[in-house]
Specification:
The protein is α/β, with parallel strands linked by helices. The protein contains 9 helices and 7 strands, in the order H-H-H-H-E-E-E-H-E-H-E-H-E-H-E-H. Helix 8 runs parallel beside helix 9. The chain is elongated, with a radius of gyration of 22 Å. This is YdcF family protein. InterPro entries: Cell_Envelope_Assoc, DUF218, Rossmann-like_a/b/a_fold. It comes from Thermatribacter velox. Pfam families: DUF218.
Length: 249
């Protein structure tokens, strides 16, 4: 019992649980005041809890496309950048990029096809591209320079697909793995399918937005991990809509 109490207390004192705690304290001290204020605070507490709960993340998380085994080894693996970290004269792939790289590297070791690293520099030309940051990691893991091709101009998923499509056609590639975060696959497949309708694209989820395990006690506590997962899910659904409308109208 002590363990669960400690976990629950820690969750309510950590971000974002501390926000719920503060709102509940305010609700306690304003209970005798106007009902509209009480109702607003109660709604805010419930809303914050729902946005930061693992069980909600598991309900909202979509089913990802399964990785289909191609009939023959694909000619390339496309890895989409997922952000980078900058500071102290260093430029490193962010956590999502690292997860995508790890998955792509595992696939690459099976047949060692060409790795196409896609990701520009959305913050200006003076900052190294995401593709170059990913290349440095793969080079350290032992991938030869000639097995990597960089696409350094894209800033969005749509541009990822457009720029990579040009390189894929130039090389005569007819099949490829598309590696990105699971929650990002729906949008990425829509864009890549539009620009490369003649190419066999095999989607690969590098990681889920949230744990896919059965519900546990932890899933009913507010957590930053669940909040980030839910934010990702909403972000991707909102990002998918303009792409879908763009191709329909």
């Amino acid at each position: 019992m002590g363990f669960y109490f400690q976990k629950a207390l820690g969750a309510m004192l950590d971000v974002p649980g501390i926000l719920i705690t503060v709102i509940l304290v305010l609700l306690f001290f304003t209970w005798k005041k106007k009902s509209s204020c009480r109702h607003f605070l109660l709604f805010l507490a419930i809303f914050t809890y729902l946005l930061s709960s693992g069980w909600v993340a598991k309900i909202l998380e979509p089913e990802y496309p399964e990785t289909r085994k191609p009939p023959s080894p694909p000619q390339a693996i496309v890895v989409l950048g997922g952000g980078s970290l900058r500071g102290n004269n260093a430029h490193l792939p962010g956590p999502y990029s690292m997860l995508r790289l790890n998955k792509a590297f595992t696939l690459w070791k099976e047949g060692k096809p060409l790795l196409i690293l896609s990701g520009g520099s959305p913050w200006g030309e003076k900052v190294p591209s995401e593709a170059r940051a990913m290349q440095a990691v793969l080079r350290a893991w032992g991938v030869p320079e000639e097995k990597m091709l960089l696409e350094e101009h894209s800033r969005t998923t749509w541009e990822n697909a457009r720029e990579v499509a040009q390189k894929v056609r130039e090389l005569g590639i007819k099949s490829l793995y598309l590696v990105t975060s699971g929650v990002h696959l729906k949008r990425a497949l829509l864009a890549f399918g539009h620009f490369l309708p003649e190419v066999s694209i095999y989607p690969v989820s590098a990681h889920p937005a949230y744990d896919r395990d059965p519900l546990s006690f932890e899933d009913f506590l507010p957590s930053l991990k669940a909040f980030v997962a839910i934010a990702q899910i909403f972000h991707e659904e909102l990002g998918y809509l303009p792409y879908w409308l763009r191709l329909r109208f």
